[in-house]
Amino acid sequence: MVRPWFKGIACLMASTMLLTGCWDRVEIEERGFVLSVAVDEAAEKEGSADEPKGLQQFEVTYQFIIPTGLMKNGKSGSSDGSSAYFNITKTGDSMFGIARSLAAEVSRAPFFEHLKLIVISESAAETLGFANVLDFFIRDHEMRRSVRTVVSKGQAKQMLSVVASNEVIPAEYISSILENSRKNAEIVKKARIGDVHEYLLQKQSFVLPQISKINDKEADLRGSAMFNGTDNKLVGFLSAEETKGLNFLHDKIEGGSVKIKWNDNVSNFEIRESKTTLHADVKDRNRIKFHYHIKTEGIIAELFDRPDLMSAPVIKEMEKLIEEEIRRTAEKTIHKVQRQKKVDVLLLRSHLEKNHYRMFQAIEPDWETGINYFAKSDIIVSVHANIRAIGAINKSERP
């Protein structure tokens, strides 16, 4: 007969097998924090003659954080970002292979859980295949779905060397600008890699923020890059103005301004609220009609003239000019994406799939190819603007 105390000891010893603790713990001092990655097309293939080689050749730049450099800059108030980060560039035909090869060159193994930004060059997106570039980032278990993705005009790695006077790390600087879509309607609202993954799975055309380098301390994120959902290829770019029109159509306006011509000068209308609704008439599938209705409210932010803003006819005239300008911008965007590029970055496909599912199933194979129902559709834009405040000054001086 087994004694009770022996049973207790046996259970206690067995329970210790469940107490694994932090078996995979890695001290924070031993991690190499990667905050940003830039992907370019490599000029030459590398590797031995015997090993398998892919058709694509990547040049990948990783931006590592130096924690001691961050502390130093934070205490001194300096903006010398050279001591807060370092960049390392590697080439190869496999994103995963390149990432793992870094462990042989840096003292701290690369750690991607704090990755904030992926910059892909225009040439890499066109030549290497956009989905191929993102495959590693989507699959890897360390990657978060909130990583932001942008497309660069020019070399992507150059963007990771732009350090603003008020920032110490390029990735933080670029990420901060993406937040400014609340103030500038010409910037695409930040695109998470999780959103991009959904677009790729649904074969939905989409846009990503565009970035270009102005100088060593400035970058410009106005404008956007267009991708065809059929083959995931980069097909072109939208200008800053066209991107503003797209934001209106997407109901993504959180702020910004509308400039109108007033007499011999200009006036600026600051957007405080904006709401866009979309309706589709699918009675004739060969001529589907989409109607956008944009309703916006705001204030007169700037005026270089002497109109009586207490006069109702003057306010009505200004509202009419604002409506015409918003409509012109939106229609310019529609012409670019529907008539010239013929890619549905307007997300009309998604609207039909949600609201007219049966009809859309019948035309889906020819939505952006073949018959191209998207290009044959009629798209109408109507705008209603409301000036709800005129500011503190009723009449400005004429220069």
TrEMBL record:
Glycosyltransferase recorded as keyword: no
GO biological process: spore germination
GO cellular component terms listed in the entry, alphabetical order: membrane
Location within or outside the cell: Membrane
Keyword vocabulary terms for this entry: Germination, Lipoprotein, Membrane, Palmitate, Signal
Membrane topology type: Lipid-anchor
Domain Spore germination protein N-terminal: 24-212
PROSITE patterns (UniProt xref): PROKAR_LIPOPROTEIN
Residue ranges annotated for the Spore germination GerAC-like C-terminal domain, each copy included: 223-391
Source domain of life: Bacteria
Sequence similarity: Belongs to the GerABKC lipoprotein family.
Designated name of the protein: Germination protein GerLC
